[in-house]
């Protein structure tokens, strides 16, 4: 096959050296049309409304129908305006576990033009104070349990109070605020693996593009086969980007979303999948790893796929998962950028899928600034209507993240293979600078996972007088396994160029991770092995 034809077919435009989605483009509403993402998602619902529940609380079995959900949204929107004084442009902070009243609250806030920011209820008061300092909310919504973590002076509406219940049960009132698509809809907080968390703002237009992309993938044939719309266990909460995106997907497609409340354990999520015969499950990497190692009998006959996001999933865990659940395909996703949509695509274990609709990408050489081609590794730059607006109150971060043409510099080292699949090699900021040569921690971590007896591993830089930094590994051994530091270093040395060899191995009980499964490298760099260097 002619190479020029092949690369064009695979979404690579050679003259501009840009990559484009292989999936059909999705039309969006006119940009100047006044429209909020809640109204847009609701407009995609079939008529008559689906008979299946819109929401199920896995902890209690309580359900909310689609007519009830829409009624609650209208009632809440009216009460938020008239009784809580919340209007277009006001920022609102939400600090609550997954509950049946959280989805209608989010949608009502969006429908009146408020900006929704949400924190993890497990966060400390110090972390929550930082969130609030970034967004300056007018009011917070919390439960009687989480409200104690809010800083003094911030007005709060308690979800498990008679006042809020009356908001849900009131009349619909006047029409929703006319919100511009360019208005900020949500503010999401970054995972903060390399420093203090940043607040990323997304517009209604950004969210509408995401919903439109999901809706374009609707599969009527699959719905007929299973006898109705999909049912999904939402294993990621709404304060997490993936959970929020997949909830909006469920709303727009008329699917049933099963909520796992509080800090749900993996067992509770799996039991919910069994009980409600769900077809889909969203999960972070730690959940998939635990499912892959599951030893108890499971009745997941209806489960078709698991979507994993928020962090890297070790290939060994993905292989174990497929062996444990041979009839379930697992897919990786990067939120608004790439996705796997069928069983064939999901066989690319280390890939995060193909570019989603309406996304264009570049790979840029970090030294020369040259645009790269298929199979070459460089920093991933992106442009799409689904890309965030920028970071709130952090112009330095915005200047470093966006170029003058609107390209977002992801900070990820990536490549596209010949079939259009995207592979993330590592984070630029996490590369180890061994002399003039960069070393990828992710590459070494992948190799360590292949050594029998290693349960988990993380690679970080270790100071070296001669070359500046060298790779060192923190390793968790499986029970009953005795591997020495020399054996591990020899294993790696046989598979890499000399400058990539491990120079030190430290055995620990567990690798610290963020809630989404990313390695908390800052914690590892505070390990006693580093502090001991300054001692005589």
Automatic annotation (TrEMBL):
<keyword id="KW-0067">ATP-binding</keyword>
<feature type="domain" description="AMP-binding enzyme C-terminal">
    <location>
        <begin position="443"/>
        <end position="518"/>
    </location>
</feature>
<protein>
    <recommendedName>
        <fullName>4-coumarate--CoA ligase</fullName>
        <ecNumber>6.2.1.12</ecNumber>
    </recommendedName>
</protein>
<dbReference type="InterPro" id="IPR025110">
    <property type="entry name" value="AMP-bd_C"/>
</dbReference>
<dbReference type="InterPro" id="IPR000873">
    <property type="entry name" value="AMP-dep_synth/lig_dom"/>
</dbReference>
<feature type="domain" description="AMP-dependent synthetase/ligase">
    <location>
        <begin position="50"/>
        <end position="391"/>
    </location>
</feature>
<comment type="similarity">
    <text>Belongs to the ATP-dependent AMP-binding enzyme family.</text>
</comment>
<dbReference type="GO" id="GO:0016207">
    <property type="term" value="F:4-coumarate-CoA ligase activity"/>
</dbReference>
<keyword id="KW-0436">Ligase</keyword>
<dbReference type="GO" id="GO:0106290">
    <property type="term" value="F:trans-cinnamate-CoA ligase activity"/>
</dbReference>
<dbReference type="Pfam" id="PF13193">
    <property type="entry name" value="AMP-binding_C"/>
</dbReference>
<dbReference type="GO" id="GO:0005524">
    <property type="term" value="F:ATP binding"/>
</dbReference>
<dbReference type="Pfam" id="PF00501">
    <property type="entry name" value="AMP-binding"/>
</dbReference>
<dbReference type="GO" id="GO:0009698">
    <property type="term" value="P:phenylpropanoid metabolic process"/>
</dbReference>
<dbReference type="InterPro" id="IPR020845">
    <property type="entry name" value="AMP-binding_CS"/>
</dbReference>
<dbReference type="InterPro" id="IPR045851">
    <property type="entry name" value="AMP-bd_C_sf"/>
</dbReference>
<keyword id="KW-0547">Nucleotide-binding</keyword>
<dbReference type="InterPro" id="IPR042099">
    <property type="entry name" value="ANL_N_sf"/>
</dbReference>
């Amino acid at each position: 096959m002619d190479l020029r034809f092949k690369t064009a077919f695979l979404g690579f435009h050679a003259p501009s050296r840009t990559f484009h989605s292989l999936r059909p483009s999705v039309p969006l509403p006119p940009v100047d049309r006044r429209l909020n993402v809640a109204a847009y998602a609701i407009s995609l619902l079939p008529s008559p409304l689906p008979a299946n529940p819109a929401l199920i609380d896995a902890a209690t079995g309580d359900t909310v129908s689609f007519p009830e959900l829409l009624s609650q949204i209208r009632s809440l929107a009216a009460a938020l305006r008239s009784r809580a004084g919340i209007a277009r442009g006001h920022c609102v902070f939400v600090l609550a576990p997954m509950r049946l009243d959280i989805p209608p609250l989010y949608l009502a806030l969006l429908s009146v033009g408020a900006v929704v920011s949400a924190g993890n209820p497990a966060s400390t008061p110090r972390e929550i104070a930082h969130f609030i300092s970034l967004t300056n909310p007018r009011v917070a919504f919390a439960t009687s349990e989480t409200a104690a973590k809010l800083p003094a002076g911030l007005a709060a509406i308690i979800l498990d109070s008679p006042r809020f219940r009356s908001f849900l049960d009131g009349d619909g009132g006047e029409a929703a605020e006319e919100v511009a698509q360019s208005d900020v809809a949500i503010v999401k907080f970054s995972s903060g693996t390399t420093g203090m968390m940043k607040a990323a703002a997304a517009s209604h237009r950004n969210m509408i593009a995401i919903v439109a992309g999901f809706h374009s993938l609707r599969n009527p044939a699959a719905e007929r086969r299973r006898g109705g719309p999909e049912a999904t266990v939402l294993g990621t909460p709404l304060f997490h980007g993936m959970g929020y995106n997949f909830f909006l997907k469920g709303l727009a497609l008329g699917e049933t979303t099963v909520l796992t409340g509080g800090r749900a354990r993996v067992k509770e999520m799996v039991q919910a999948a069994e009980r409600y015969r769900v077809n889909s499950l969203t999960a972070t990497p730690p959940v998939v790893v635990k499912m892959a190692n599951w030893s108890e009998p499971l009745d997941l006959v209806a489960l078709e796929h698991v979507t994993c996001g928020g962090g890297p999933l070790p290939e060994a865990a993905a292989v174990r998962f497929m062996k444990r659940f041979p009839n379930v395909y697992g897919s990786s996703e990067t939120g608004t950028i790439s996705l796997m949509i069928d069983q064939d695509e999901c066989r690319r274990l280390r890939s995060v899928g193909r570019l989603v609709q309406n996304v264009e990408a570049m790979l840029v050489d970090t030294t020369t600034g040259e645009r790269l081609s298929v199979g070459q590794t460089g920093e991933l730059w992106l442009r799409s209507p689904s890309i965030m607006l920028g970071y709130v109150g952090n112009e330095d971060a915005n200047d470093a993240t966006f170029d003058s043409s609107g390209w977002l510099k992801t900070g990820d080292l990536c490549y596209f293979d010949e079939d259009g699949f995207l592979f993330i090699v590592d984070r630029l900021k996490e590369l180890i600078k061994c002399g003039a040569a960069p070393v990828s921690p992710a590459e070494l971590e992948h190799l360590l996972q292949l050594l029998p007896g290693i349960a988990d591993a993380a690679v970080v830089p270790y100071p070296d007088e001669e070359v500046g930094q060298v790779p060192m590994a923190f390793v968790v051994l499986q029970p009953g396994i005795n591997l020495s530091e020399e054996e591990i270093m020899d294993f790696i040395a046989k598979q890499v160029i000399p400058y990539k060899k491990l120079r030190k191995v430290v055995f620990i009980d567990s690798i610290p991770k963020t809630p989404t499964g990313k390695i908390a490298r800052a914690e590892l760099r505070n390990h006693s092995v580093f502090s001991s260097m300054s001692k005589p």
